[in-house]
Amino acid sequence: MTTTPPTAPPPPLLGVTGLHVTFPGRQGGPPVRAVDGVALAVRSGEIVALVGESGCGKTTLARALLGLVPPASGRIEFAGRPLTYRSRALKAHRKRVQLVLQDPGSSLNPRHTVYDAVAEGLRVHRYSGDEKEAVTEALARAGLRPPERFLLRLPHELSGGQRQRVVIAGALVLAPELLVADEPVASLDASVRGEILALLLRLRAELRLAALVVTHDLGLAWNVADRVAVMYLGRIVETGSVEEVLTAPRHPYTRALLSVLPGTAGDPVVLSGEPPDPARIPSGCRFRVRCPVLAGGEAERAGVAERCRDEDPGLSDAGAGVRVACHWAEGRAAG
């Protein structure tokens, strides 16, 4: 009796391996390591939240995924094929991967109508179909119904939530496979945020649209994402399913971020100081200068304090599909 060998799982829609993005240092100083060895994957129909403090490299990573910032090294693959930086290849890539920015006010030209704002992508990519039909369908999918009411309006005539929906419609009109949404609700009132997050979930259900949601808010990640990747000082330090990472965080940095959410049990963890300069990343674990586990002696008692100071931890298996870059957490998982 012959058995059929198991088929290999399909490659992720978006795959990032060993990605580094650097910028020149100030006054001839060392280069700024904005993205410093990131590995990340987003599968078709999946929402992944990329979480971290301001300045950790989230937005630079998002722009690199669109080909807007060239990497110093590493690899970005989309649908199993490497991203190349020839103009024609980049144009084709940006049709399939669309960026939704934080501030719809700055994304929209105040002199352009809603129709022109949404149709802009079609014109750039020389769409050959019925432009008006495509625009109205995108507006309807983004929740602006009936779309004909909005076509001739200018941005100042819309609410903040409506403007964000126009920006999303401008992305949807090109039928992308992945949205990269950089703080998509940060500038909106609390009453509107839930509507936009519900829209992302509906688009995933209806279109099997994948999304990478860049945010500083772990609460947002809990509400919308399937998986979460926590970023600190240019690198992913913990990643896994939302349920695993947010109910049983392994990395001390993730624990600190979660501790300040409303309704969280226990006292908030106040991290000392500011994140280090990305041009001067500390030796050993990049979080060690702010780590409460190292400062409180827990790492010493676990026998990993010297490794924290000397060895840069890579992502390792922490169980339940979670990967973490932390010597202390790695030891706890092994024990």
UniProtKB/TrEMBL annotation:
The keyword Isomerase does not apply. SUPFAM superfamilies: P-loop containing nucleoside triphosphate hydrolases (SSF52540). CDD domains: ABC_NikE_OppD_transporters (cd03257). It comes from the Bacteria. Pfam families: ABC_tran, oligo_HPY. Keywords: ATP-binding, Nucleotide-binding, Transport. Gene3D superfamilies: P-loop containing nucleotide triphosphate hydrolases (3.40.50.300). InterPro entries: AAA+_ATPase (IPR003593), ABC_transp_ATP-bind (IPR050319), ABC_transporter-like_ATP-bd (IPR003439), ABC_transporter-like_CS (IPR017871), Oligopep_ABC_C (IPR013563), P-loop_NTPase (IPR027417). One of its GO terms (molecular function) is ATP binding. NCBIfam families: oligo_HPY. This is ABC transporter ATP-binding protein. The lineage of its organism: Bacteria, Bacillati, Actinomycetota, Actinomycetes, Kitasatosporales.
